[in-house]
User: What shape does this take?
Amino acid sequence: MISTLARPCEVEHILLDADLHDRRQLFTAIGQVVSQNQPQASADIAQRLDERESLGSTGLGHGVAIPHARMDSLSTSVALLVRTAEPILFDAPDDKPVDLFFVVLVPEQATQEHLQRLADAARLLSERRVREALRTSVSIAAVCAVLRDEGLTS
Amino acid sequence: MSVNTTETSIRHAQLLRESRPFIHALHGQTVVVGFLGATLSDLSMRLQWMQDIALLALLGARPLLVHGVPWSGHAEQPSPAAQRAAMTEVNVDLVRLLNREGARAVGLNGQDAHWALASDQNEQGLLDADTALIQALLAGGMIPALMACAPDVNEAWHSLPSERFAAQVAQRLQARALVLVSEEAPSLWAGMSDGMMDRRGAATWLAAHERDESALAMRAAMAAADGGVSTVHWVDAHGQGGLIAELLTSEGEGAVLCRRGSTQVLNDTARYFSHADSVIRPNFVAEHKWVVRF
Assistant: This one.
């Protein structure tokens, strides 16, 4: 059963058909979306995501990944959904490029609730019908509806 | 030009464009395609598969194919001489079809240039192999079409299980992917979650299906993964365009065994959150850690 999650994946945190071509561009874009007009904070987010990725890819296969990072500047978790215009190489277990990224940033002292959000994302994106729904959604509103129906937003 | 034709052309162009990142990922990579059982006995199926393998080569991948005798395990086994004749006949036809489809193929058995040595126990497959010739052919843009047969140290000829032979060749070439094409494939992946499993899942599957016909293929797949082959795919022999769909789309058409799977992702995540009061379990549930104090 999917847990109720504390914070929604906000509309401004959903990027559709983003023109990004590699991991570095992806993490830079995520930093800029979360910390608008704060270059240092943006760079920190990109760096923390990259550090986590260097432990082992967060790619799950079937074109999906769940990049995540602990941030000491956060008091609550932030989630983003990024769908790239073209799949990008992400060292996924099935060696296939990735186009769906559910990104979770959590406070440094991550709690059960924060980890559950990550676990929920991983479980849902392991389902083909969810991936297909997210890939075929033509608007942010449609993506929000999919996430809401699946319990990933409130 | 009619509207329908224009729409079809645009759709074709779009499909090619969408495939570009997958083609890029496979460019220059070795892909071993093994045909199991009676897969190649159907002539129309044979043509369809050779078209797909030729397409892979034309797109920049380095495919190589392995086949045995197109014989159903339920039928009476032919004599060694009949097996050898049948295998050679199929090989000649496969090479002809590949060349007709615009690729450059060459047929080989284990005796050619003495590249392969069979174990005297057929089920063990190859005892030794020098893949320099095959690597040279691949580097030259050729498609080696290998018969799953080789002489043993006493020069006695052996027909070897094609799944094991293909896995051993993939392992020795450090292939990016091994694709096993089988009529049994759908029953094999029926128990897989979302068409994907890792080494741990494969071991669990094997423990529950020791006596299945597909167990041989699973053992070969696990050996290949253990030996460094990144992914092993099972594709239904009857699926139209199954090879292309499996390798060049996110979702694929078959099932895949990944050397590194979701268990590893969760382990890495647990390491990353090792200081946290909770942990993500393999069933995707976050639980408080139990702390025993002395």
Remarks:
- The mean pLDDT of chain B is 88.
- The domain at 14-259 of chain B is CATH 3.40.1160.10 (Carbamate kinase).
- The first helix of chain B runs from residue 3 to 26.
